[in-house]
Amino acid sequence: MTLTKEQAAEYLLQMYQIRAFEEQAEKSYMAGKIHGTMHLSIGQEASAVGSISTLEPDDFIIGHHRGHGLTIAKGADLNLMMAEFYGKENGYCRGRGGSMHIADVKGGNLGANGVVGGGIPMAVGIGIGLKMEAKDQVLLSFFGDGAASTGAFHESMILAELFQVPVVFICENNQYAMSFAASDWTTSKKIAAHGELYGLASTSTDGNDLIAVREAVQKGVDLARSGGGPSLVVNDTYRWRGHSKSDRNRYRTKEEIEEWKKKDPIGRFHDYCLKEKLLTEKEAEEIEDRAYADIEAARVFAEASPDPSVDTLEEGVYAP
Amino acid sequence: MREITYLEAVREAMTQEMERDSRVFLIGEDIGEYGGAFQVSYGMLEKFGHERILDTPITELGLTGAATGAALIGMRPIAEIMFMDFTTLASEQLVNQAAKLRFMFGGQSTVPLVLRTPAGSGTGAAEHHSQSFENWFVHVPGLKVVMPSTPYDVKGLLISSIRDNNPVVFIEHKLLYKTKGEVPEEMYEIPLGKADIKRQGKDLTIIATAIMVKKSLEAAEQLAQEGIDVEVVDPRTLRPLDTESIVNSVKKTGKVLIVHEAVKTGGFGGELAAVIAESEAFGYLEAPILRLAGREVPIPYNRNLESAAVPQVEDIIVKARELANLKV
Predict the structure, then answer these.
(1) pLDDT at B328 over 80
(2) B88: which residues sit within 8 A by CB, 6+ positions away?
(3) What integer is the mean pLDDT of B267-296?
(4) Taking Cα atoms as reference points, which of A191, A130, A14, A118 lies closest to residue B73?
(5) pLDDT (tens digit, 9 = 90+) per residue, B243-252?
(6) Which of A43, A60, B91, B279 measures 20 to 30 Å from A292, CA to CA?
(7) Which residues contact A19 (CB under 8 A, 6 or more apart)?
(8) Is the predicted pLDDT of residue B184 greater than 90, yes or no?
(9) Three-state DSSP class for residue A239
(10) How far apart are CA A130 and CA A15, in angstroms?
(11) CA of B203 to nearest chain A CA: how many angstroms apart?
(12) Which chain A residues are closer than 8 Å to B108 by Cβ?
């Protein structure tokens, strides 16, 4: 599964855009321009981009609270996304959802979710609907290691297998559910074994290696699209930042974080592209510069955007 | 007109809607061969097959989430939760997800989902199969809550609920399943948010829901023999609520008794009382607003205890008589 130069450039750009978006998010927050909280996926970029790179444009994703990367990888408009992060009226969700609830329904992103495991049961139903309407589309359902211990996950695996839905479940194991270490109760292999137990084709992979993620998820997508039913892929990865803004990193060591930074998914893909002569050093630099410029433009757009009017508060609770 | 039972009316509404719209399907536990715990979907598997009658293992959270997800991409699922007690297990998907997705995503999504569930006591099934949780769901913006009391209403309200573009909690009372009434064979809608005056009267208003409508009508007949002329108002939908019909009735009679089966504290009666007290009807009140509701206990097993835990016809008569004689 070799990449074309265009693919390499696109994936590297998306990974840099995710990194740049989240670094900007952090800066805006520290500058007091954002209220609430946010969950950064810095260090997990290969999982988002590698997984979603296997989809056709009209396929779907449904995500989780740490969802900026997924949203960018699914092709979101960065301006509308940043505007939503800033809580503005012209953001994707009119400023009603914010960081934790970004959806881009027209773009096939059926939404991030503030409840851990909240998206997984819905994924089964989306799969049921696609199958019932005999659609060719597939869905990627993302969640973390924290969700893998919930009842929602286990019930959903059972229903997904029963109804043979065209869904690839993707567990992004970033090693911690807030402060609770995945290693205290499971491993990526064990999470995959749960899927296996329920009858899903399941595998775990190096989630910081874009090529490995792509290969694993592509198998699941092919299976789903050919009527072969659901599968589970566990991407083994790591979040560099804390769980959210309240995190004091008391549950892990600096050494551990530094060890994982050596496995930086962007650095690894960058080096891969150079080694395979998919990109030159100069092209890679230009891509990085473009990503940061895109995010700077999005910041300017978001900050210039209007807040929602309080008069519109009660709009949109019910559909006509 | 032909008479059928409340249960048959539910089945007929679902069947006709499934024939009309291929996006409508059923999902729930034991709804296929078994026909549902109360036989509501009996025979529908033969008609529609396993593709549209989705029998699930015991996964209230999972199946409610599946219905929500299917609705999110334009299907129109009807999820059955076998007993309302088990909506506790489904609530995450119903309350946090289905109810909020549209608002949370700035209007990008719709969730046309019906969650049907039988509620109420009177079957001897005790604490875990007898509860009435309607007010929990009334409290959630984004949900609609429907509680039909007659075969005619249940058909028209269910058809409207299936066609509605929002998540609807559709609460059927178990003791009403076998009650009979006139129901047209053709399809018809009863708008959500429209109350019905089940009996005209001038002395006092009883506002009642579900099985309590039937009991209140029986009480009204007996009170009529004593010269007390009772008006019975059935809100039919609790959210959205037809405030206007309620306020008008209270203005007309000047006295109101609210009757529901759910526990009194935190029950829907408190909301109704507040709606009346805040409205122009306040100035017309000739007596305090009274409530008759479930006692402050879980539903017990023993027949006498179970019966005493919720309002009965005799209780309504006593309370209404007391109200008729009350003067401020």
Answers:
(1) no
(2) B133
(3) 98
(4) A130
(5) 999 999 999 9
(6) A60
(7) A42, A45, A266, A291
(8) yes
(9) coil
(10) 29
(11) 38
(12) 92-93, 103-106
Residue numbers in A near B54 (CB within 8 A): 128, 163
Contact at CB, B52 and A132, closer than 8 angstroms: yes
| pLDDT at residue B153 in the model | 99
pLDDT range class, residue B273, cuts 50, 70, 90: very high
Chain B partners within 8 Å of A101 (Cβ): 104-105
For the record, the structure tokens of B279 come out as 């409205």
Match 């959903």 to its residue by tokens: A156
3-state helix, strand, coil in chain A (%, to 5): 50, 10, 40
Six-digit token pair at A265? 């998914």
Q: Give the residue-averaged pLDDT of B270-282.
A: 98
Spell out which residues of chain B touch residue A125, defining contact as CB-CB under 8 Å: 65-72, 75, 77
Instruction: State yes or no: pLDDT of B317 exceeds 70.
Output: yes
Q: Where are the beta strands (DSSP E) in chain A?
A: 60-62, 139-144, 167-173, 176-177, 180-181, 201-206, 231-236
Chain A residue with minimum CA distance to B66: A125
Which amino acid, residue B141?
P
Average pLDDT over residues A273-288: 98
Closest residue of A to B76, CA-based? A129
Average pLDDT of span A109-129: 98
The complex scores an ipTM of: 0.97
Tell me if chain A has a CB within 8 Å of the CB of B73: yes
Is B129 an active-site residue? yes
Considering only the beta carbons, identify the residue of A114, A130, A158 that sits closest to B59. A158
HEC per residue, chain B: CCEEEHHHHHHHHHHHHHHHCCCEEEEEECCCCCCCCCCCCCCHHHHHCCCCEEEECCCHHHHHHHHHHHHHCCCEEEEECCCHHHHHHHHHHHHHHHCCHHHHCCCCCCCCCEEEEEECCCCCCCCCCCCCCHHHHHCCCCCEEECCCCHHHHHHHHHHHHHCCCCEEEEEEHHHCCCEEECCCCCCCCCCCCCEEEECCCCEEEEECCHHHHHHHHHHHHHHHCCCCEEEEECCEEECCCHHHHHHHHHHHCCEEEEEEEECCCCHHHHHHHHHHHCHHHHHCCCCCEEEEECCCCCCCCHHHHHHCCCCHHHHHHHHHHHHHCCC
A118 interfacial to chain B (CB closer than 8 Å): yes
Query: In the prediction, which pLDDT does A1 show?
Result: 63
Residues 272 to 301 of B: which have CB under 8 A from any A CB? none
Please list, in sequence order, all residues whose beta carbon lies within 8 angstroms of the beta carbon of residue A15, skipping any fewer than 6 positions away: A45, A46, A49, A210, A265, A266, A269
Residue type present at position B95: V
Report residue A111 as tokens. Answer: 């939404």
Among A92, A11, A96, CA closest to A55: A11
